[in-house]
């Protein structure tokens, strides 16, 4: 089932938690709301769920307008950040709680319980209590409880934030696989950029209640439309400057590093303040490419499959440079002089909105 939001707004006192949000989420899509704490992503999810009433705008599930309906009338499944499991109830009782409220037949409840346990790989644990389960298993119980309702739409509010890193990666893969198998439209809230990029069909980045960009993960990472998105999604190096000229989709900007070139984003104009964004993996040690700068090694950090250098260029500007081929790389010492190069095709020139994390 598709979801449509038209200029949806929600205020709490003088603060606009959600400001005229407009979205089209496709049938069967896994769509993620991404942003820092306080950006409005959970509020927007709760507006879809019916826990809040919007102050303006419309929310549609398919051909049905739902912003005036109670949560139980929207046929949604919800998974909360803290799982919201009853500690005194068994796994089976937690999963079937909503089914009993709907007064389904005992046989139908049993059938859905068995199917729900199978979907989330919890067979044989129906008689355990939440306190006897791991965090990952508790998360699966919460997911099964939502799925046995046969919802049209699944809403997940930071469901993995309480899990350790290794289990989080495992469970998010399970969620993605199950979502694809079921074909259920899913809206997922997270502040974790890696989680959003790995799970989603599309991602909406929010800032101060406003949706600032909606795109597939690769486009969001490689072609952010603003400095805020470029800074929030992944790691970026930023070189501020003034645009000298724009031609053929490329821009040349004057910076403390000299003239550098990159791909011009929308809104970049000759004479305007701008910023060049280039990711650490697109910088290389040595000569070559369209842009080369002199620098000095400040710090080397071993990240497992990557060696990340922090280098200082002109006017105290620091850049991060990633080296992936560690077998053929001899580590550089702090203070060593280096040259850093990058192609214009892998550097993005953005209007400088003044944002920085």
**Terminus-to-terminus distance:** 36 Å
Q: Average pLDDT value?
A: 94
Q: Based on Cα principal axes, name the global outline.
A: globular
The share of residues in helices is 10-25%
Side-by-side strand order of the widest sheet: 6-7-8-3-9-10
Report the biggest beta sheet as strand number plus sense, adding barrel if it closes. 6 strands, mixed
Low-confidence runs (pLDDT<50, min 5 residues)?
none
Helix/strand structural class: alpha+beta
Strand content: 35-45%
Order of helices and strands: EEEHEEEHHHEHEHEEHHEEEEEEEEEE
Tell me the Rg in angstroms.
24 Å
- The total count of helices amounts to 8
Number of strands: 20
Provide a concise account of the structure shown:
By secondary structure, the chain is of the alpha+beta class. Helix content is 24%, strand content 36%.
Could you explain how this protein is built, in words?
The chain is 24% helix and 36% strand. The chain is of the alpha+beta class and 357 residues long. Strands 6-7-8-3-9-10 form a 6-stranded mixed beta sheet, with helices on both faces. A 5-stranded mixed barrel has the order 11-12-13-20-14. Helix 2 (91-101) runs parallel beside helix 4 (135-147). The two termini are 36 Å apart.
Which terms summarize this structure?
alpha+beta, 6-stranded mixed beta sheet, single chain, 357 residues, 20 strands, 5-stranded mixed β-barrel
SSE layout:
Blueprint: E1 3-12, E2 15-25, E3 30-34, H1 41-49, E4 56-61, E5 64-65, E6 76-79, H2 91-101, H3 106-119, H4 135-147, E7 153-157, H5 165-182, E8 185-190, H6 193-199, E9 202-207, E10 210-215, H7 217-222, H8 227-232, E11 237-247, E12 250-255, E13 258-264, E14 273-278, E15 284-285, E16 291-302, E17 307-312, E18 318-323, E19 337-342, E20 348-351
Parallel strand pairs: 3-8, 3-9, 6-7, 7-8, 13-20
Antiparallel strand pairs: 1-2, 1-4, 4-5, 9-10, 11-12, 11-14, 12-13, 14-20, 15-19, 16-17, 16-19, 17-18
